[in-house]
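User: Here's a protein and a ligand (fe (ii) ion). What would the complex look like?
Assistant: Let me lay out the input and then the predicted complex.
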Amino acid sequence: MTVHKVGQDISVLNDCLEVPGIGFLPVNAFVLHAAEPVVVDTGVGLPDRDFLGTLGSVVDPADVRWIWLTHPDRDHTGGLFALLDAAPRARLVTTFLGVGIMSTERPLPLDRVYLLNPGQTLDVGDRTLRAFRPPLFDNPATTGFYDDTSRACFSSDCFGAPMPTAELASSDHAGDATEEELRDGQLLWATVDSPWIHNVDTAKYLATVQAVREMEPEAVLSTHLPPAVGIAPRMIDTISGAPGANPFVGPDQAALEQMLASFEPEGTPAAPVVPG
Ligand SMILES: [Fe+2]
Ligand SMILES: [Fe+2]
């Protein structure tokens, strides 16, 4: 994992996964160094990752007061239980549905949970975080937030974009990609992660995009995009076009067999990792 800093207040814990045929997808967690430190998501759970060790390079886990789980997909929950153990004072911010979904794998300790819905706020000592439902999402528990002190919008899966190279996916600024790479990646990801975008009332969808525009965020911090500072208007324009993007169709069995045939005969490759 790679660590970046955004301004004085935010650390980015960056990971990256190669998705065949799609590109290199960033998988970020964040630390908001508020008076009461907030960890936002906890990375992937692959056995060679050490989320807690990487987190410990930017904050003492024992000092963490809030773990904001934007949604309980497995690319967001990797270090969750290790962090709950290492951060005994931390409360886990999620929704009723987040708790329910987690209960199908490993139940959350309910006395550690703090239920917060989009539209509600969380006081973290020196600032108030405003929870909102991002315009694009793949899980009904999804809750991002806006911090008007750092002017950062934590958008969960929304605004994600696979990058053409691992270097770009691990960059400290989404603007290192060309405008075309960023736009194409964000539209692709919108159709992969939120296929419902083709079936909804466009005006109602655009009203949710407008709500983000009115935040006037300086930084947009997506789980699946390098940190993006100073380019929010352009990215908001891009996702406004998502209803008109080509629907995503994944590889079928014939494509899989072609892929397998291209590998050396000594072994079947591991199943591809497709984060959500
Ligand atoms: Fe995700
Ligand atoms: Fe997701």
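Summary: The pocket of fe (ii) ion (ligand 2) is lined by residues 71, 73, 138-139, 157, 276 (CB under 6 Å).
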